[in-house]
C-alpha cells in the first residue's frame, strides 16, 4: 500500500539542474522535492459546464463535506478551503475525480493519525494544511 518511490521522468540536463540546485541549497533531492511541493502555488483550471455547456465554471473556496465510516460509525468531516468547481450560470458543482480520490486517501491518513495518537477524530480539516508534507 505504501509506495516508497514516486518516479519522475527527466532528461540528463534536467537531472543535472535538479542535482545542482539541491547541492547549491544543501538539500537532498527528496528534501528539495518536498519543499517544492509545499511551495508550489497553482491555479485550478476552469472547465466547461456539462449542463449549460458554457465556459462558465469557476473555482471558489467553500467547505466540502466528507463522510467516512470509522469503526462502523459515520464521521462527518468539513474540508475547509477546498477549491470546488462551480458553475455561475446553473449552480452545478463539480469534483475532479482524481483530486477526490487523492483527497479521500489523505483524509484516511489523518483519521489513522488521530486513532494512533488516541485523539478525537477530526471534524474539520483545512485543505491547505492537508497539502503540506
Ligand atoms: Zn452550468
Give a concise summary.
This is YgiT-type zinc finger protein. The protein has 133 residues and is of the alpha+beta class.
Walk me through the structure:
The protein is of the alpha+beta class and 133 residues long. It has a domain at 57-130. 36% of the residues lie in helices and 26% in strands. It contains four helices and four strands, in the order ααβββαβα. It has helices spanning 12-24, 29-39, 97-116, 127-130, and strands at 57-70, 73-87, 93-94, 124-126. A hairpin with a 5-residue loop joins β2 (73-87) and β3. The chain is flat. The mean pLDDT is 90. Bound molecules: zinc ion. Zinc ion binds at residues 49, 51-52, 56, 87, 89-90, 92.
Q: What is the count of helical runs?
A: 4
User: Would you count the extended β strands for me?
Assistant: 4
- Distance between the ends: 18 Å
User: Could you name the ranges where pLDDT drops below 50 across 5 or more consecutive residues?
Assistant: none
Largest sheet data: 4 strands, mixed
Overall helicity: 25-40%
User: Beta-sheet strand percentage?
Assistant: 25-35%
Integer-rounded radius of gyration: 19 Å
Shape: flat
**Which molecules are bound besides the chains?**
zinc ion
Written as H for each helix and E for each strand, in order along the chain, the element string is: HHEEEHEH
Mean pLDDT level: 90
Class by SSE composition: alpha+beta
Keywords summarizing the entry:
single chain; 133 residues; 4-stranded mixed sheet; flat; binds zinc ion
Amino acid at each position: 500500500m505504501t509506495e516508497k518511490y514516486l518516479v519522475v521522468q527527466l532528461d540528463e540536463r534536467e537531472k543535472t539542474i535538479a542535482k545542482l540546485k539541491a547541492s547549491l541549497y544543501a538539500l537532498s533531492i527528496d528534501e528539495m522535492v518536498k519543499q517544492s511541493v509545499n511551495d508550489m502555488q497553482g491555479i485550478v483550471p476552469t472547465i466547461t459546464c456539462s449542463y449549460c455547456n458554457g465556459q462558465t465554471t469557476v473555482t471558489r473556496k467553500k467547505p466540502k463535506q466528507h463522510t467516512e465510516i470509522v469503526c462502523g460509525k459515520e464521521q462527518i468531516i468539513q474540508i475547509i478551503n477546498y477549491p470546488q468547481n462551480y458553475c455561475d450560470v446553473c449552480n452545478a458543482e463539480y469534483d475532479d475525480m482524481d483530486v477526490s480520490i487523492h483527497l479521500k486517501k489523505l483524509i484516511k491518513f489523518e483519521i489513522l493519525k488521530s486513532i494512533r495518537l488516541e485523539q478525537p477524530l477530526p471534524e474539520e480539516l483545512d485543505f491547505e494544511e492537508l497539502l503540506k508534507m
